[in-house]
Write a structure and sequence with these properties.
Blueprint (H helix, E strand, L loop, with lengths): L2 H15 L3 H17 L3 H17 L5 H17 L3 H18 L6 H14 L3 H21 L1 H6 L6 H63 L1 H6 L10 H7 L4 H7 L2 H16 L10 H7 L4 H12 L3 H19 L1 H4 L3 H7 L5 H12 L3 H12 L2
Length: about 375
């Protein structure tokens, strides 16, 4: 048993005998320091925790005893590799230094431990904070403890630490810049989304209005279609085409005789009234052959009298039929879209929906939804 341990034990016994509580805990703190250096970390902790309770809860204003108790506790936990607990005590020391400005050489150990800890945990902000705290404390130590500080071993030199501080600061600046860039992009994306959303809602409102007008028009024409009361069936936008083709008789007669033109028009009327346009695979050539004319004549008559090419003419007939039947035939609109498309003569659903949107100006889905809303079925 060495002399230091004997002296400490004597001090503990003497203070107990004299009921000198303060001296007792001073000696208990020295025993903690002794156990720390003997690497008996748990024994050191057991005694130092009692010292902490005494020095911090009995209105004891002994800064030195408070600081060194926490210092030895932190080092003891560090010895046990309980780094989180060690950091807790070292952070308490830093808080006390800020409040009391009590500086002592061993603080270098405190701050170097904290710097290394947060570096290992990639917490650059706290690492930078304790680097800055170290530099301030180190500056005071160099001025107040010049000779002692020169003899103490240093984990960091000031120039090295300044360089590390600059490196961390640059890294944090880059991170903040990246954060602001990402935040700006998110904000722009959010604004674009809002803009697109409101445009969509506005478009949806327009689509609904178009769909409602189509439904009303289809209902008005329902009896005309059922009883074939009109000599020539007009589409929902045929009047506009008629305005553009009102004076085409003379142009037709130059290449096609009046008898042939009237014959073709009569065949087209039958083609429309008997819904023959719903047959799949209809082409200009196949229709010309069916009505006993040639493709050139048929194309010219459709362009001149219908104001559109053959493909548009065929699509418009099918879509106008779909508009009317979907509005008035509950069973028909209950079918799946691919089936409806096939019934109308289209090869697939996509061709039908694209043709519907192009003809009406509103998507098929919105038209069907508005029918349900208006009819309640």
């Amino acid at each position: 048993m060495d002399s230091a341990y004997i002296l400490i034990q004597d001090g503990l016994q003497e203070s107990r005998k004299n009921k000198d509580t303060y001296r007792y805990y001073e000696n208990l703190g020295l025993l903690g320091y002794y156990n720390l250096h003997s690497k008996k970390y748990q024994k050191a902790i057991d005694g130092l925790l009692e010292c902490e309770k005494y020095f911090f809860t009995n209105n004891i204003s002994d800064k030195r005893s408070q600081h060194y108790t926490l210092l030895y506790l932190g080092k003891s936990y560090a010895g046990l590799q309980q780094k989180d607990k060690a950091v807790d005590f070292f952070r308490k020391i830093d808080s006390m230094v800020l409040k009391t400005n009590y500086i002592y050489p061993e603080l270098r150990d405190v701050y170097t431990y904290l710097i290394d800890y947060y570096k290992e945990n990639s917490d650059t902000e706290k690492q930078l904070y304790y680097v800055e705290r170290f530099l301030k404390v180190d500056n005071v130590l160099d001025s107040q403890f010049r000779y002692i500080s020169r003899e103490l071993p240093r984990r960091y030199d000031t120039p090295e630490l300044q360089q590390e501080k600059e490196s961390i600061t640059n890294e944090l600046t880059k991170r903040k810049s990246l954060f602001y860039i990402v935040l700006s992009l998110l904000l722009i994306s959010h604004l674009l989304f809002i803009n697109v959303y409101f445009k969509y809602k506005k478009s949806e409102k327009n689509y609904k209005k178009i769909a409602q007008d189509l439904i009303l028009s289809a209902n008005e024409r329902r009896f005309d279609r059922d009883y074939k009361s009109e000599p020539e069936k007009e589409s929902f936008s045929e009047n506009l085409a008629a305005e553009n083709t009102g004076n085409t008789e003379d142009r037709t007669s130059r290449t096609i005789s009046e008898d042939i033109a009237q014959s073709i028009l009569k065949e087209l009327e039958l083609f429309e009234n008997k819904d023959l346009f719903l047959n799949k695979g209809i082409t200009l050539g196949s229709l010309a052959k069916k009505i006993k004319t040639n493709s050139k004549y048929l194309s010219e008559i459709i362009n001149t009298h219908k104001g559109k090419n053959f493909a548009t003419y065929l699509n418009d007939l099918r879509i106008d039929y779909a508009i009317s039947r979907l509005a008035n035939d509950r069973k028909f609109r209950s079918y799946k879209i691919p089936f409806i498309a096939e019934e109308l003569g289209y090869n697939n659903e996509q061709a039908f929906t694209l043709a519907f949107k192009k003809r009406t100006g509103t998507p098929l889905s919105i038209y069907l939804k508005e029918i349900e809303n208006m009819t309640g079925k």
